[in-house]
Structure formats: structure tokens, C-alpha cells
Design goal:
Layout (H helix, E strand, L loop, with lengths): L33 H8 L27 H4 L17 E10 L5 E19 L5 E4 L1 E3 L5 E3 L1 E14 H6 L2 E4 L5 E6 L5 E7 L4 E11 L2 E10 L10 H4 L4 E11 L1 E3 L10 H5 L7 E4 L9 E4 L24 H9 L3 H10 L1 H11 L3 H6 L59 E3 L2 E3 L4 E4 L16 E9 L5 E7 L5 H7 L3 E3 L4 E3 L18
Antiparallel strand pairs: 1-11, 1-13, 2-3, 2-6, 2-9, 2-12, 4-5, 7-10, 8-9, 10-11, 12-15, 14-15, 16-17, 18-19, 18-22, 19-20, 20-21
Helix pairs in contact: 7-8
């Protein structure tokens, strides 16, 4: 199985063993996470087929949106969560910081989008301008009225000693503005208008030990609510969109809240994060920069290196979106280009993509577990100078079956009745297990550590790996998920049987072959 390679696809990186090291002086820590931060900033900005008329592009900006408090709480207080898919009026990030030397400082960068209304206006015979939805100029170019967004950044660096004396608050808003672009032939103009955005970011620390602090970064919308009743589309004009925070500094090191050190587990568990999810950024094995995003990510997220550019959709695969974009009709491409400059840039990149760049989009395998060994093979390639592993006994091999692409490869496989042996217990449909995701698991799986579940099916993939589908015991929608066939999937070594192994468990051989 290969992993998707979308611009927003964040390749899993396994941390290296050994102590964290400070970043090279020649490299800005924030620059190391810039591509991931940009993917977060523009996630969902504009979705395929990148046209204004597309239904997907009529309801926009779903992550990290901070509205005026009175507007967002008009139907009741917001309910804090770990990610920002729900509208809020604030974000709160808490993390653990090691103090490496005296004179340490903390650097915070808040990033968000400010909505910009692009209004096309036609010039009338009397010279006055009239707002229109679209306008075609003499050269055949179409201009469409659409909502754009402008990126904003606020940076602040504060000595740690000052923060220990008291919190620091800085203005984080953006001023109103208007830009006018005349169109060729005096046909009209494009007016881009931005409303004022008001917000504050407060940074504070709490000392937990001589060399350890808890850092808190809280960003809140401070502007007045628009007059009721105001639709969300209009309230977005004064909102912070795709809000996220980068935290770095000098003489400090951040502690992972996902892969928590044993001696800091209690302190890490006490960190409260609301509408955001902080992870370590930069190279694996380092802790010099933190990315606190409104979406759930793993530590050290990375944009797939094969991706040639942003497609604004982290849930898709570059190859698929590129092929779909290539197949847009000329009329659809004209509308997409008229919708937004970023859509036009995507079309230009796709239309001029060299074959060798496109070929790299087909996929790359980054994390495969070893397939089941075949009879007569060794368990692993011997290291020079070591004793070769013994061959796999013929008796332990499964029944000979065709390769996965050949007819009959799936015969004898039944996910609902197949079983897999875990700690001497045969697990199959109906078995009860406790979930223990491994360190390299998907970041969202880590929220399920210790939860109990019921096995729904056992699947075998073409690489010989086994995947166990489960439903959570405490999920009120588990029956619905079962009916739809939507499960959580785990490797056998991530499951702990809740039933005891029999005194003499029969040997069981894993199958390989078709799906």
C-alpha cells in the first residue's frame, strides 16, 4: 500500500533516538515548518474543481475560525475541544518548555487569514460603477466577484525572565483596507475591501521546576459582534481564519505532548489545549519549534517531498487531483481562473507540469511492516558478520495461493470469520480488545489509547499485512458505523486481548494474499 502525496498530506516521521539538539544558527526554526504551516493556513481555501459555482466553494473556511464572542455564543457558550473545526472566539495552547540556559527567550508567531471581498464593478454610460457578479473585458478575460483572503502574521519575542514576572499581551488584529484595480478598456474595476479584525494574543509561563515551565498562548477575538441577525458568511469578514501559532525561542526546548517522557507525563496531561493541537515541528528528534494548529497532526509533520505545490486539500492525493484538474473543460478552466488567483496558479502548474514531475506523484511507500516470510526464506536479511536467521520451516507456511493480482487470490479469505493470533488469543469478529496504538500511529489514534473495542473483521492486504477493524465500546454511533462499514483499523500488535489465552493455544499461521 502506498501513501497519498497531497500538498497537505503530512508524511509520518519517526523520531530519532537520542537527545534533542538546538536548531542550527543558520536556519530559522520557523522556516523549517513553513510548508506545513502554509498547508494549514490554506487548507480548504478553495477546493477542486476550483470554480466559484462549485457547491464545495460556497461554504468555506471551517478550521481555526475566531469570531466575535457575542456572535459565536448567541446560541450558547462554545464547548472547548482539541481541534478547531468548531467556530470559537479564542484558542488556547499549553505546552511544556525545558529551560536549557540562562537568558532564554520565547518567540511566538500568530498566523491567520483576513477575509477580503473581491467585488467586480461595471462602468456605466454615466461613468458610475455598478456592482456585478461577473464581467468580461475586451480581451475575453472573465472577472468574477468572490471572497479572497490575505495572510497575516504577528511576531513577538519575550525574554523568559520577563514572562516569569507576568503575562504579556500584544495586539494581533489587522486594519481595514481597500484596493482598486482598473480593468482594461475602461470596462470596470475590481475593488477589494477588508474589514477591521480585532484580536489579542497573551503569552504567559508557569514555572514547574528550575528547568521546566508550562507555556500558555491564548488568542482571543476582541472586536464587537456584527449586528444581528448576521449570517456566518458576513461574520467571516471580521473573523480570524485558519488561525494557528508557531512557538520557538532561544535556549528553550519543547516537550512532546504525544510521545510524553515518563517523568513528565503528569505535567503533560495537565496542559489544557482548546480549539488547537500542539505538535513538535522541524526535523525528527528535535524540539526547538512547536506548531499549534486547528487540525490534528503528528509530531514533526512534513509535506510529502514529491508534491510540486499546494492543492488546498490535505485529504486528497496530488495525482488524483492533478488528473482531475487536467480533465476540466476549457470553460471550466476559464471560470476557475476568474474565481481566484490561487486557482489560476494551480491550473498553470498542472498545464505545464513536466512528465518526470507528474510521474513522481504516483506514490511512495514510507511505512510498510514486513510481509509474512515465504517458505524457505529467512526472517530478515543478515547483517554482515552476524549469524543468518534460520529459514522458515515448511510446516509453518500457509497454503500455497496465487499472487494477489491472479484469479482466485481471494478464495478462502473471509474478513468476518478470519482470525489472528495475539498474545496466544485468537481474535476475530466479536472479540473484545483494548487499544494500544504504537508511537508511530496516526496522531488521531493516540486519543484511543486504553479504550476498549469489539473486533468487527480481520483483513489481509496484498503485502501480507493484517489489519483488524474494530468499533469502540463507548461510541454511541458504533451500530451505525458497523452498518456503513466504517471502522477503526489497527495492527495486531496494537491490540490487547481482554480474554485470557487458553492453557494450550493452537498454533495459528497468518494468511497472506488477496484483500
Amino acid at each position: 500500500m502506498s501513501e497519498g502525496l497531497a500538498q497537505g498530506d503530512l508524511a509520518r516521521a519517526v523520531p530519532k533516538d537520542g537527545p534533542d539538539l538546538p536548531p542550527p544558527r543558520s536556519m530559522d526554526a520557523f522556516e523549517q515548518v513553513s510548508s506545513v504551516a502554509d498547508a494549514v493556513l490554506y487548507e480548504g481555501y478553495l477546493l477542486y474543481p476550483y470554480r466559484r459555482s462549485s457547491a464545495k466553494n460556497r461554504v468555506r473556511w471551517q478550521f481555526g475560525v475566531l469570531f466575535p464572542r457575542d456572535w459565536v455564543e448567541s446560541d450558547g457558550p462554545v464547548v472547548p475541544g482539541l481541534s478547531g473545526s468548531a467556530d470559537s472566539w479564542y484558542q488556547r495552547t499549553e505546552c511544556l518548555v525545558r529551560i536549557l540556559r540562562p537568558g532564554a527567550s520565547v518567540r511566538v508567531r500568530l498566523r491567520y487569514l483576513q477575509m477580503q471581498r473581491k467585488q467586480v464593478e461595471e462602468t456605466g454610460r454615466d461613468g458610475a460603477h455598478r456592482a456585478v457578479e461577473s464581467l468580461r473585458t475586451e480581451d475575453g478575460t472573465v472577472h468574477l466577484t468572490f471572497d479572497e483572503a490575505v495572510p497575516r502574521e504577528i511576531d513577538v519575542t519575550i525574554p523568559l525572565a520577563d514572562l516569569l514576572q507576568g503575562e504579556r499581551t500584544v495586539a494581533a488584529g489587522a486594519s481595514a483596507g481597500e484596493d482598486v484595480e482598473p480593468l482594461p478598456g475602461r470596462a470596470g474595476r475590481v475593488v477589494r475591501r477588508r474589514a477591521e479584525v480585532r484580536a489579542d494574543t497573551t503569552v504567559s509561563v508557569e514555572r514547574l521546576a528550575p528547568d521546566l515551565c508550562r507555556l500558555r498562548v491564548r488568542t482571543a477575538h476582541t472586536g464587537p459582534a456584527p449586528q444581528p441577525p448576521t449570517a456566518r458568511e458576513e461574520a467571516l469578514r471580521v473573523a480570524l481564519i485558519a488561525t494557528h501559532t508557531l512557538v520557538g525561542g532561544e535556549g528553550v526546548q519543547f516537550v512532546s505532548l504525544i510521545d510524553r517522557p515518563a517523568d513528565l507525563r503528569a505535567a503533560a496531561d495537565a496542559c489544557r489545549n482548546e480549539f488547537t493541537f500542539p505538535v513538535l515541528g522541524g526535523e525528527p528528534g528535535t524540539g526547538h519549534v512547536l506548531l499549534s494548529a486547528p487540525i490534528i497532526l503528528p509530531d514533526h509533520p512534513q509535506v510529502a517531498p514529491e508534491s510540486p505545490g499546494d492543492l488546498h486539500d490535505a485529504a486528497e492525493i496530488d495525482e488524483i487531483l492533478t488528473l482531475r484538474t487536467m480533465l476540466l473543460t476549457d470553460e471550466e478552466k476559464r471560470e476557475a481562473r476568474a474565481t481566484d488567483p490561487r486557482a489560476a496558479a494551480i491550473l498553470d502548474r498542472v498545464d505545464t507540469m513536466p512528465p518526470e514531475v507528474f510521474a513522481r506523484l504516483h506514490g511512495a511507500v514510507r511505512s510498510l511492516t514486513p510481509a509474512a516470510p515465504t517458505p524457505g526464506s529467512t526472517l530478515a536479511a543478515p547483517v554482515p558478520g552476524s549469524t543468518p536467521a534460520p529459514p522458515v520451516p515448511e510446516a509453518a507456511s500457509p497454503t500455497e495461493r496465487p499472487a494477489w493480482w491472479q484469479e482466485g487470490a481471494d478464495e478462502g479469505l473471509s474478513p468476518t470469520t478470519d482470525t489472528v493470533l495475539v498474545d496466544g488469543v485468537s481474535l476475530g469478529g466479536g472479540s473484545r480488545v483494548r487499544l494500544q496504538p504504537k508511537r508511530a500511529a496516526d496522531a488521531q489514534d493516540m486519543f484511543l489509547v486504553g479504550r476498549t473495542a469489539e473486533v468487527a473483521a480481520v483483513f489481509h492486504d496484498v503485502d501480507g499485512s493484517v489489519h483488524v477493524a474494530v468499533t469502540l465500546d463507548d461510541d454511541p454511533a458504533s451500530e451505525l458505523h458497523t452498518w456503513y462499514g466504517r471502522f477503526h483499523y489497527f495492527r495486531p500488535d496494537e491490540l490487547e486481548p481482554l480474554e485470557s489465552a487458553p492453557e494450550s493455544a493452537p498454533s495459528e499461521t497468518p494468511r497472506s494474499g488477496g484483500r
